[in-house]
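Subject: Interface between my chains keeps coming out wrong

I've been trying for a while to get a sensible model of this assembly. When I model each chain on its own everything looks fine, but I need the whole thing in one frame so I can look at the contacts. Pasting all components below, labels as-is. Any help appreciated, I'm running out of ideas.
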Amino acid sequence: MTLRNLITEAQNTWCPGCGNFMIQHSLKNILAGMENEGKSLDNVVLVSGIGCHAKIADYLNINSVYALHGRAIPVATGLKLANPHLTVICCSGDGDCYAEGLDHLIFAAKRNIDITVIVHNNRVYGLTTGQYTPTSPLGFRGKSTPSGTAEYPFNPLELMLASGATYIARGYTRKQEQLKALFLQGIAHRGFSFIDVLQICATFFPVADYYGSRVYDPAGHDTGDFEAACHLAREWDYNTDARIALGFFYQRQAPVFEEKMQPAAVTQEERDHAIAALLGSRT
Amino acid sequence: MNEVSVLIGGKAGDGINSAGALVAQLLNHSGYRVYLYFDYPSLIRGGHNFAIIRGAEQGIGTCREKVDFVLALTRETVERHRGMWHEGTAVVYNSGLVKGPGQGIPVKEILSQEGAPDIMGNSVIIGAFAKAAGIPWETVTSVFMSHIPKGVELNLKLARKGYDLLEPIHPVSRLSSPALPLVTGNEAIGLGMVQGGLEAYVSYPMTPSSSLLHFLAEQKDRFGIQVVHPENEIAVILMGIGFACAGKRAAVGTSGGGFCLMTEGLSFAGMAEIPLVLVVSQRTGPSTGLPTYTGQSDLRLVLHAGQGEFPRFIVAPGDVAEAVYWSAVAMNLAWKYQVPAFILTDKTLSEGTYSLDLPSPAGIPPGEFPRWDGSNAYRRYAYSPSGVSPLAFPGTKDAVVKVNSYAHDESGITTEEGEVVALMTEKRLKKEQGLAAEMDRYLPVTVSGVAGSFSVLLCWGSTKGVCTEVGSALGLRVIQPVVLSPFPKEQLKKALEGSKRIICVEENATGQLEELARQHGINADTMILKYDGRPFTREELERKVREVLP
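Reply #2:
Try treating it as a single job with all components included. I did that and got this:
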């Protein structure tokens, strides 16, 4: 078997120092690992929204749907419902899926569709050159809020816990080994997996020093304990100064949406018969 | 009588639609072609509902102004529709709730004698109607046996009590046609899409499209399809696109307001060359408008919706047979050309019940589309003379399938190169030429009425029924473009050959087909427009046409 080149020839246009490189690198390593284990990448699909994060659809040489801003998750849901054998990885931005497409994120968690959502959460709009997002801190001065935002960020982990997500984690682009482990775990989890990735935006929100002095790995956290996960998620509210826990927050097993939604096996002949029977019943 | 009209009215929740369906079956089994119009306000309990059931020798798609029978479950039914009575209209009413004139039926007493619940009161009235219409008791028995799901014996007993109370008042002639299936327009669209290979239907409820969602959800296991009701119409179209990207034949359904939310997804489907069927059922607009009433004011919307330029197929069936046929065709053409394909309908067709007279019940099998042969590295948007690229789906061995909403190159990678962008634009537009040429294999324009007449009624969608009837009565040619995009200009010009006067009939306020035809150099002389949410009646249109004829 010849291993495929996992990176396309598309020119990479992320800024130097962008956290997206780490996310792509981690995914590439995971894909290479799958190939080395003899797993075909033919069944893997990457779905992205629109924004800096989404360029990953051009860069990774695997099946992809480069969708619309905020709309990666419903496309991913359709793909998984249509073909449950696919491994569907959804890369989304914070503006993308916490603002424009928040409804889809909540509903995907509620349904427990077996897809993995990786949020490239740089807490700023990059491609539109620097406006606040739903996770920017209060008072964030962006191009649309030169006097500082007048609204608090929300806490995406808390939101996902409330919405029924069955795998919840938080990574950081400067903790590459952990990030890869969380992605692997999320992909392996049968059900809706959510990974919020604190990603450095080198140009518009370079907060590596802030994160560097606050991130930690909680010891002895019980990932099956919903209340403990809520407590851990609330430790840092994406706004006020606090320790920032990284890693695996919560997991539970639950029936997956696509399994309940599979069509009955019906042959063309049975279908024709059903149509004839229906018309007969209307006569 | 060789034609009969029956009005049945009551409160929302009285089961008027199902009682109307039974009356329709009685006429169906008496040899009539049937049309049922159901009129209801946007509420769940209490408001006035009525159905008009019309039977005639020929296929029909409209009501008359006058009715021969009124079946009144409420006083309001008698009072509100008095203008629809003629001198001989027979009124059969529930004497416990309504005062005459006409034939009072003591429904309450009969129900209590038999210990039957109130909802079965409709059976007493229907039995009385059957006798007043001279319908043999055997017909009542067989219709009840086939069409009442439970408690048929008690219902028949109640109907017989009503039947025995009256004598024939307006006996309807027994006609020779065999009974035909009675289906709504939405059911016909569903059946057509299933024949065209539908595998998934995604929709968010919105009148008058919801009954298609309900129908397919109820039948999904028999047809072997998936039916999904997501969080909103944006999710609907994006999920539909997800299904299509995975190789499943998907359709979405909505009405105007929901379709507005879908337009960004529509443009994505245009750019990314996604095969997807969209059912848009029009109601009175703008905005929330009249949710449960009809209109033809969204043609311009579906013609132009979505940013940028991309081909689309639009078909507007005029009756249930066309709805079955063209829905299957729309599904096939969406896949053959990898374009969004619309089935544009309205409340009149979607929720009206018609006799389905299909020339070939076998219908149209799911058509083929070009598939990747595996010989060279897969490129999702490979150039070809027709503009159509072979399809492969994620899961196909050794194919890297890259679907993209950005301007992209042949392999699906984003590009900003002007030359590639221009080539790709031309590639997509070539598919429109193919679609237009493909129309020679179909009949995208129908001609009915009196074919050689100098005067033409030009119409589209559900007004075909009323126009055909008026055209036949007044000796006019009736021309209906069923396909509206790509616009069948040559076929329409041919159908119009020798005409001297074109009267465009539409249920909107600005003449949207008239404008579309004008853009293609076909000028109507007059427009007859209606925009109060109610479909034209036969007499109303006839009067208006006479006014504009010399």
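Reply #3:
Confirming on my end. The mean pLDDT of chain B is 95.
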